[in-house]
Amino acid sequence: MPWPGRGHINPMMNLCKRLVLRDPNLHVTFVVTEEWLGLIGSDPKPDRIQFATLPNLIPSELGRANDFLGFIDAVHTRLEEPFERLLDRLNSPSPTVIIADTNVLWAVSVGTRRNIPVASLWTTSATILSLFLQSDLLQTHGHFPIEPSGSKEDEIVDYIPGLSPTRLGDLPQISHGFTHQAFNRFKPCFDQLSKAKYLLFPSVYELEPKAIDFFKSKFGFPVYSTGPLIPFDEVNNRSEPDYIKWLELQPKSSVLYISQGSFLSVSEAQMEEIVEGVRESRVRFIWVARGGESKLKEALEGSQGLVVSWCDQLRVLCHESVGGFWTHCGYNSTMEGIYSGKPMLTFPLFWDQSLNAKMIVDEWRIGMRIRSKKNAEVLIKRDEIKGLVKRFMDGESEEGKEMRRRVCDLSEICRRAVAKSGSSHVNIDAFIEDISKIV
């Protein structure tokens, strides 16, 4: 039972594919709304994954960004009853285990009532969950609530188990505004975690050992890192869409791949500065513009780039012509950037993205900041963007060489994790063994 959103459905589906491909006795019922079945129902998947649907009782995917808080409330209040009715119909055989997104508030209690173990899948970093689960420590240390862009944002938070020392300004602004309201709605989900039977992460243990070890010590049930939960098996697709043909014509490591994600975006004024900054940098680029493709094409006419409405992101990132990734720092995108061995230019917008950007730039040292919390409300001008893009794409500078060397090392760590005997490979086998013992 994934949370109904692209950034949650994708890792859940990738986990389920790994499970059924590893064990021929496993069968998965993948639960989505009728709307989401229309969006993903034709995607390739193993035969032992079947879809089941819930009625469209929540706001449409097309408009959820307009009232995301209302969307959260709808998922939390309207889908539990139809999910229970679905479980009543799944009786030959009955479900052995429920794998549910941590953000689905009622999933653990439904499993408990029915004596079905629940494995909670948290679809972003273990590090951010350690913060969310222990947010009361911010209050204890005088760091909650904090005024946005206040005098304390450079103070270091070094007292939260599982979280490396971090500037207060690099943490999500959970004490104010929209993020505060979203956090309050999701907090009961975090409180339910202790009643689950398993906790699964889409991360790689070697990338977040401190946070994952914290959860292993905190909970009296198995905690498994199973990532990266990205579609790496599909990278060698033989099809040649126009954007791949275009990439084939570009010099090695010369193209900047630009994607601001599929949910939230930036102001028109900021987008105009980004467009002009990228254009004036004269760097080659491929830019994914969901919804605004024609407008962006017009604005970038005559530049050295390609604008597309959609592309196979991981396949593009793994192409040798691509030398860098401009990203909003959603967790799936972060993992795809690392797996592909591409340094990242970070432009976080919401929720976990600022902390993901901090890990990219400060901990893993595989990227640069365009936007940080310190200037989140300030318009970043085209000249600054132009200079950063040129500096970031300079693979011959010492800074550029070191960044690319480090991200290649982390890419190798990710690839080893999912190979036979790798940490994530072993953890998925252990999880399968656990659930196989359930009678």
UniProtKB/TrEMBL annotation:
Full protein name: Glycosyltransferase
- Transferase among keywords: yes
Q: InterPro entries under this entry?
A: UDP_glucos_trans (IPR002213)
* Keyword tags: Glycosyltransferase, Transferase
Which Gene3D superfamilies does its entry note?
Answer: Glycogen Phosphorylase B
Species source reads: Eutrema salsugineum
Give the Pfam families listed for this entry.
UDPGT
Its family remark reads: Belongs to the UDP-glycosyltransferase family.
Instruction: Give the residues annotated as coiled coil.
Output: none
